[in-house]
Amino acid sequence: MAAVILPPELMRSREAERLTDEARRLLTFLVSLLPDLNPNEPRTCVRYKEAHDKLQLRQKGTTYGESLKKQGLAALADWTAATGKPAITGMIVDGTSLMPAKGYYKPFGRSVDDFEWWRDQLRRSKEFDWAPYLPFSIEGTPTPIATDIEEPAAQRVETRVYRVLRDTELALRVKKAHNYECQICGQTIVLKDGTRYAEAHHIRPLGRPHDGPDAQENILCLCPNHHVELDYGVRAIAREELRVVEGHNVGTKYLKYHNDHIAANGS
Ligand SMILES: [Zn+2]
Predict the structure, then answer these.
(1) Which residue range or ranges hold the HNH nuclease domain (predicted)?
(2) What is the pLDDT of residues 25-78, one digit of tens each?
(3) Residues 173 and 238 both lie in one domain
(4) Quick check: 230 and 16 in contact, CB under 8 A?
C-alpha cells in the first residue's frame, strides 16, 4: 500500500497518528460495511445519519455531519491521512448527493471535486487489511436511511455504548465466581496457556448517560458474542435464562434497565 504523500503544510501532528477510541469505533463500523461497498455505486456507501444512528452517538452539533465529525470522524480522517491509510471516511456520504462532504478531501490535500481519487480510496479501503486496527468485530446488516448531511439531528434517548475492556476489581471477582463461563450460554474460552477468558458486562453501563454503578448486582460474566449482543442492545435479558452461582446475585432493576433502555432502543 503506497503511502499518501502530504505537502508539508498538511503534515499531521503526532497526535493525529493515535487512533482515538471514537475513531476506532467508527473505523470498526465502516469496515463492517466494506463487503457490501461497491466503489462505483455510491448508493452502497453509508449516510451520515445512518452512521450516527448505528453508532448510537449523542447529538453534538446541529447536523449529523457535524456531530459525527466531533465524535470520531475528524479523528479518523486525520489518522488515515497521518499514517498513510486509505481514506475510508469517504464511505460516509450525504444522503442527497451521495457524495462525501467537502471536508472529506481536506486532510488529504485533495480538491473537493477529485471524485476519481475518492473512488480510488474506496477501492483501496476494500482491499486494505484493517484487522490490526480493530478492537472487535460488530455484526448486523445496516438499513439504509435516506437523509442529508444538513438534516438536524433529532433529540433522542442517549444510548451510547462502549465495551469496557478494563475490568474493575468487582468485575474480575464476578468472572472468577462463574469460572469464566458465560451466564447466557455457558461457554468459556480457554487460552493457549490454559487460562480461561470471559468478559464482564455492566448491565446498566458505567458513565454518562447511563451512570450505572460498579456493583456486583450490575455485572454479568459473558462470552464475547453475548457481550456484544448486550452492548449493542440486540437482545433483551430474561432472569430465567441467566446461569447463577452462589454469591453473585443479579439485580432485577438492572435487567429491567437493559430491557427498557438499551435493548428497546437497539437497532
Ligand atoms: Zn455466551
Answers:
(1) 171-228
(2) 999 999 989 988 999 888 889 999 999 998 889 999 889 999 999 999 999 999
(3) yes
(4) no
